[in-house]
Write a structure and sequence with these properties.
Elements: E1 10-17, E2 23-27, E3 30-35, E4 38-43, E5 50-54, E6 57-65, H1 67-88, E7 91-98, E8 105-109, E9 112-116, E10 125-128, E11 134-138, E12 141-146, H2 149-162, E13 176-181
Antiparallel strand pairs: 1-6, 2-3, 3-4, 5-6, 7-12, 7-13, 8-9, 9-10, 11-12
Length: 187
């Protein structure tokens, strides 16, 4: 006699509390959260996850969940918590400008971060500043802040990548712009 075991799938839901002063709305798979003039939207791409808002909570649910669906729901909850935290207080990154050989100059020009005289290069390097991100240069520090952690992090990565040294010995050519401080992780 052989036994077959059937794994039962069951409904799984999780709720995220919406803080005071923040309004959220769900339209299909799109969640939009607002506070004052700042608005952040996020689309949920997983077909099995459904979003709704009941009272002051965002409800994420899956009718027939398995391990992968539950993991996806928890990933979306982490993204939603980052959105709600960013609307309360912007996320900030700090970068340090390091130059050993040639004095480089940096400036913000619209949505571009320009790096001049990097390792004596005649052509300036540039990095994209994503819309909704504030970039300030204070001496040898670059301060990046945004309510959206993904946009702030991507802008910091763009700037760091633009000042990357290639095909040279990194022990000697230590010039560049490096991320020195990231937002604290709050669980």
């Amino acid at each position: 006699m052989s036994h077959t075991f059937i794994k039962m799938r069951k409904k799984y839901d999780i709720k995220v509390a919406i803080p005071d002063g923040i309004s959220c709305k769900a339209e299909g798979k799109m969640i939009t959260c607002n506070r004052g003039n700042t608005s952040i939207s996020r689309k949920i791409f997983q077909q099995s996850i459904f979003v709704s808002i009941s009272g002051s909570e965002i409800v994420l649910e899956c009718a027939n969940s398995n391990k992968k669906d539950i993991a996806n729901i928890h990933t979306q909850v982490a993204h939603l918590k980052n959105i709600l935290l960013g609307l309360k207080e912007p996320f900030s990154y700090e970068l340090e400008i390091c130059n050993v050989h040639f004095p480089m100059t940096v400036k913000v020009d619209g949505n571009k971060f320009l790096i001049n005289n990097f390792l004596g290069e005649k052509v300036s390097r540039s990095a994209e500043i994503i819309e909704g991100v504030n970039v300030k240069i204070e001496g040898s520090k670059v301060l990046i802040s945004s309510a959206d952690i993904e946009k702030a992090g991507q802008t910091a990565a763009n700037i760091e990548k633009a000042a990357r040294v290639t095909k040279k010995d990194r022990r000697i050519f230590q010039d560049g712009i490096f991320i020195t401080k990231k937002p604290e992780v709050i669980l």
